[in-house]
Specification:
mainly alpha, Serine Threonine Protein Phosphatase 5, Tetratricopeptide repeat, 46% helix
């Protein structure tokens, strides 16, 4: 599947639609595998998300990652991230087994500014979420020495 065209993936799904919902022994669907690969293609993600959007917030058995966690960890392009978010906005607030929403993963991998802008535009409450060690994204980002611009974006906002 990796490196396959959108047409090939669409054909495979048409022949066996349930395949995109199947999981391996680690609980990874084809979308998880694609998002955790070096061949992360927006067109392929679009096809898999369109066929079964609920897969976007499915967690793996290994570490509880969703496809969005995996894509953020791989520094995926904005079109890929948008497709995953539009597939299921719940993925933005889903915590992995380490208590991280995708915003924390972006901090951990020192993602680019556009990734932070997208994640916060779609889930502004994320800046107020604490991980398992009760740390806000801005605290983790400061510890990781992220840019002042990213730190400003991550500043917690008052609930209104």
């Amino acid at each position: 599947m990796f490196g396959s065209s959108k047409a090939v993936i669409s054909f495979l799904i048409k022949v066996c639609p349930s395949a995109c919902r199947k999981t391996d022994e680690d609980g990874m669907t084809p979308l998880h595998l694609l998002c955790d690969s070096d061949h992360l293609d927006a067109a392929a993600v679009d096809v898999l998300v369109e066929e079964n959007p609920t897969v976007c917030s499915m967690k793996t058995k290994v570490d509880g990652s969703t496809p969005l966690h995996l894509a953020v960890a791989r520094n995926a392009s904005i079109p890929v991230l948008k497709a995953l978010i539009e597939g299921d906005k719940n993925a933005l607030s889903t915590m992995d087994d380490r208590g991280r929403i995708p915003l924390f993963v972006a901090v951990a991998v020192k993602a680019d500014l556009e990734t932070f802008k997208l994640l916060l535009a779609k889930y502004p409450q994320g800046r107020n979420v604490k991980n398992k060690v009760h740390e806000l994204p801005c605290i983790m980002a400061a510890r990781m020495k992220l840019s002042a611009e990213i730190l400003a974006l991550l500043e917690p906002k008052e609930h209104t």
